[in-house]
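Hey all, sorry for the wall of text incoming. These are the two entities for the joint prediction.
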Amino acid sequence: MPIKLEIVTVERMLFSDDVDMVIAPGAEGVMGILPNHAALLTALNYGELIVRKKGQDDQSFAIGGGFMEVLPNKVTVLADVAEHADDINVQRAQQARDRAKNLLESGNLSMDDMVRAEAAIRRAMVRIKVAQKRRKQRPISQD
Amino acid sequence: MASLRDIKRRISGVKNISQVTRAMQMIAAAKMRRAQEQVRASRPYAEKAWEVLVHLSQQPDAKGQLHPLLSARPINKACVVLITSDRGLAGGYNSNIIRTTAKFINNYDKPISLVTVGRKGRGFFARSKYPIIAEFDGLPDRPTLLDILPIARIVINDFLSFEYDEVYLAYTDFINTVVQKPVVKRLLPLLPEKMDEQAVAEHVGQYVGSRHPYIYEPGPVELLDVILPRFTELQVYQAVLESLASEHSARMVAMRSATDNANELVADLTLTYNRVRQEAITKEMMDIVGGVEALK
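and here's what came out:
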């Protein structure tokens, strides 16, 4: 019995399909969701969300915080930021990371700005990681 | 009577204007469609977030200590977030929402301050000496949640630090291309009694039998802490999008009638032009005939 997975961001519906397993970066650790999971509501961390479906390659998404609601046969991800691995622009993520790093090193930031810069770095790192993993998995598909 | 040359010049002037207004009409139509799509695209998230929120706020654990964003308190001061456009030539769009807001403020019996989004609203209320706490303008044509985050942050933070006890959102609801409705809606506090009991029952009842309580990670209170600000931001975001769609459709309608009027004027002027020309010719002929008669 498959799980119906929906990944929604404020700007659009990113993914909607039946899948066999979802691996998500929960606030208290990475969790794998199989069908008939107990009802659960969790905050999400920055991280990689993997969607597994029999007979298909895993799909992965970079998630930047949000929520996930799990019901026995339905998983809804409300992501603050979400991107499919194939859509990630590694160069831009690296630029974003470097920019935030420079900002941090330049010092004299307010507390808020520092938190924001650190969050930006974490976000960028997740995107880079997800995208690069993808590249290793299927080197041929990268043209 | 205007000379032939004057009329001709006016005709070409009016024609130019009608071309400009027609172009603006078309641009507005395209932008309106885009804004509408954005509103539609943000709906699934809004519905889901609302479900989760309703469901969380019903949790017995959370009941004891209501979240500050959820709880009403005695009102000493309020704030209105007013959403207008940066540019004019949009028919009654800006004046409608400004009038509605001004009326609302005047009827409100406690002091009220403003956060304005868009130059038009700021202009009016600054001229009338209303207290403006913050102003935002130059939002892009396709705003993302990130673009409106500062607006929401200001009101959430000030609300939490007791700067004001109620926050209203004044924006223009996009009903259809012809009808846009200016509304003033409460943004904060989010009152639980306003939540749809039936929706709660459907959502919670359907999945959560007493045998299988929800698991929360981290606790329900912490989750509320995250989702309430997010939901508030989302409401501001949607109001901005609705207003944007309204602005463009108001502009489109205004520009269409401007184009129609210009075309009508061209038709009138052409008629006058022809009549004047005819008269001039007749007069010349009379002169010639008169001259010939005189020579006989």
